[in-house]
Specification:
By secondary structure, the chain is α/β, with parallel strands linked by helices. It is built from eleven helices and ten strands. The model has no long low-confidence stretch (mean pLDDT about 95). The chain binds S-adenosylmethionine.
Length: about 280
């Protein structure tokens, strides 16, 4: 096993665009690679120069900052990309992983199209941190960003993902969490919900239960801080059942009836013996 603690990589990073994750609260959550890239970058593109300036000051790094968000005119992105042709350019957001409900998508897309090497410097992300502690299924999840603010739009957004057979992850704010939980309680009273708040900070908490119980709790104890809202997947009976024949046909393209039945049974929870019989019939068609 490799036990040596890696030191901060020395030297100037290679030219290119580096997508650098920064802490979501606890300043200790910055990686050695992030420090090296931020310290060696010719330019640090960021959402808010004051926020990033504070982080860099804490790290003892002096860097040239360029404000850049997804509304920045194309010329600004073009200039950043030009710098990245010959020098290392870092992109950070105010907190966490850029592009995850944060700016950066356009810059990355245009940089790739321009043949620039784009490198990920991974680190904190509220979605992943929340999923890691919520105790809800994490094998399959849909991250759907912020829920709309208005009641009808929020309900429509929730209804739009009602059939998704996966855990749902939303970003939410403290003043809106109770209303969102009430909307979820109306639609899915039986689903387990988790509210992960102030992750990595002093008052981190993760509370789970039905949406109604959580809404009552937050009505009585108005929360502060940042929130990730996680909704457990629908019960198997409610989840839309995929067409078993279509799944079997696809599996039969690469496997025999036994293996195909096993694959589809695992994916759907349907009875393996019945699937095997059906696979034999489909194979004989
Ligand atoms: N890019 C960030 C990431 O990687 O998670 C997300 C940025 S998004 C603009 C900000 C939202 O992320 C917050 O409103 C909240 O929903 C969530 N968030 C960020 N930090 C958090 C934290 N420490 N605890 C809980 N949620 C957090």
């Amino acid at each position: 096993m490799h036990t040596e603690f890696p030191s901060i990589p020395a030297g100037t990073p290679e030219p290119g665009l580096y997508i650098v994750a920064t802490p979501i609260g606890n300043l200790g959550d910055i990686t050695l690679r992030a420090i090296a890239v931020l310290g060696g970058a010719a330019l640090v593109a960021c959402e808010d120069t004051r926020v990033t300036g504070k982080l860099l000051k804490h790290l003892g790094i002096k860097a040239r900052l360029q404000r850049l968000d997804d509304h920045a005119p194309p010329e600004v992105r073009g200039r950043v990309i030009d710098v990245a042709r010959h020098s290392a350019v870092a992109l950070v957001s105010d907190a966490g992983t850029p592009l995850i409900s944060d700016p950066g998508y356009r810059l990355v897309r245009e940089a790739r199209a321009a043949g620039i090497t784009v490198t990920s410097i991974p680190g904190a992300c509220a979605t992943v941190s929340a999923l890691a502690i919520a105790g809800l299924p994490s094998d399959r999840f849909l991250f759907a960003g912020f829920l709309p603010v208005k009641d009808k739009a929020r309900r429509d957004a929730l209804e739009g993902v009602a059939g998704v057979a996966a855990t749902l992850v939303f970003y939410e704010t403290a003043p809106r969490i109770e209303r969102s939980l009430r909307a979820i309680a109306d639609l899915w009273p039986e689903r387990e919900v988790a509210v992960a708040r102030e992750l990595t900070k002093l008052h981190e908490e993760c509370r789970s239960g039905s949406a109604a119980a959580l809404a009552d709790h937050y009505a009585a104890h108005p929360p502060k801080g940042e929130i990730v809202l996680i909704i457990g997947p629908p019960a198997e009976a409610e989840a839309p059942v995929a067409d078993p024949d279509a799944l079997l046909r696809a599996a039969l393209a690469d496997a025999g009836p036994g293996k195909a039945a096993g694959i589809v049974a695992k994916a759907t929870g349907l009875d393996r013996a019945a699937l095997y019989a059906r696979a034999l019939a489909l194979k004989g068609e």
